[in-house]
Structure formats: C-alpha cells, structure tokens
Amino acid sequence: MATRAKKRLSDLTGEKLNELLGLVGGSDSVELKVTLPESGQRSTAQALQIDPLEAQIRQVFFFETPDLQLQQAGVVVRARRVQGRSGDTVVKLRPIVPDDLPEDLRHSSGMNVEVDAMPGSYVCSASMKGKAPNEQVLDVARGARPLRKLLSKEQRSFYAAYAPDGLALDDLRILGPVFVLKVVLRPEPLGRRLVGEMWLLPDGSRILELSTKCLPSEAFQVAVEARAYLEGLGLDLSADPQTKTKSTLEFFAADVRGDVPTAGP
After folding, report:
1. Average predicted confidence (pLDDT) for the chain
2. Engineered SS bond to 92: which of 19, 71, 76, 238, CB 3.0-4.6 Å?
3. Nearest Cα to 222, choosing from 12, 34, 92, 44?
4. Neighbour tally for 123: CB within 10 Å
C-alpha cells in the first residue's frame, strides 16, 4: 500500500513562510489542525484514550447553494445546535489578509481573525460570530424561521459585503445537518488542551480532526510540541486535503443536486 508523504509547515518555501508569519502576526489566534485518515481513526482513539461517552453532541447546518457559490467566493454560513449549552452561528470569510479588513470589522467584538495551520498548508479566516438558542436553529432547519432572523445585524452586513451579488441569505439552501462528536482532552505529556471532532456523514464516512488553539506568539513552538507528541503516539500526520467543512459541503451539495449514488437493493 502506498503511503502519503509527510508534510510540515517547515517544508514551505521561504516566500510562503514569510507570508504565514505575516498572517499569524495580524491574527487573534492560531488553530493547529490535522485530519486523520479513516484507516487510522480507531488506532488514534485508542492512542489518545478517547472515551466516546464523554463526547458532546453537535448538530451542524451549513447554508449554501447547490452549486456552492459561497464556497467559490470564500464565504461560509453555518449554524450549530450544541448539547448542554446554547447554539451558535458564524459567517466566515477565507482566505483573508487581516490588514485588508475594514477597521470597524477588524475591531468588532464579534470578529475573530484566525490562522488555521495544517501539515504543509495554512489559511487565514475572518469569522463574525453570534449566539443562537438551539430551538431557533431548529426552527430555521424546519422552515419556521428565516435564516436572516437567526443572524445578528453585524453578521448580515458582513455577509452582504462579501457574498456574490444578488445572493440573499434567504435564497440559501440547508446543507446538512451533520452530526459531530466533540471531545476535549488534556494529555499530561502535551500540557495543553487538545480537541477531537468526529464528523459523521450520512454515507457512513467519518472525518476525525485533532486541533489545539494558541496565541499567535506561541504558534510555532506549540506546532513543534504538538507534532512531537502526536507522532510519538504513532499517529499518521500526513497532509489530508479534505477538510471537514469542504468534505461536508461537497457531500450535501451533491445530495441536493441528486448526484449522490443510492445503495443498491
């Protein structure tokens, strides 16, 4: 069986490393992520001693067009219902350069600029976040409440500024929901919080992502320590181009278009 070549942020060209440093310096936080191949998910759960009974259930809804016009424009609209606490919403733009954001957006209390760093790649995003009761998210999913009333005024303005012309919030279709199991780990050898998310798609496929957040000033040190810890457990940290959002959007968009093959008799 062929193995995937391992990639590291340090494998980036000098130009790309300088670009990454600039993005990190202008961000509010950095999230280090790795997506594990399905073949290694069981061994990963065993190595990290993940207890599924400690997982928090989340239900994630994306709002898009069947041909993924928002994804092509770099915009993501999402709402979540979360077990045991209030749900949330986000309108996200990526990729972005922090200094290119208007001052009022950059300093809004609802705005978070974050660099997602994966093995061999990275992207900077701007997320306008909001809270939403789980019941209201469900009302939108059932068609009893328009999407625009679930989002804050700032989120609606942010969407209008960056979404394709003529594509209103209430023109979007629901893609999902996808069920997510989230566990929070605190491995003593690592000395910091590690989050595991298992995304369960309706076709039986699973996406397992491990992540940890840190301040921009400590990003490279944390990246080295996290990689050393996870590789020390024997985990496969090869680069995986299929991120959870991209994979989920493509699956449900194909389902809406009728492109997902059905199981035979």
Report:
1. 91
2. 76
3. 34
4. 15
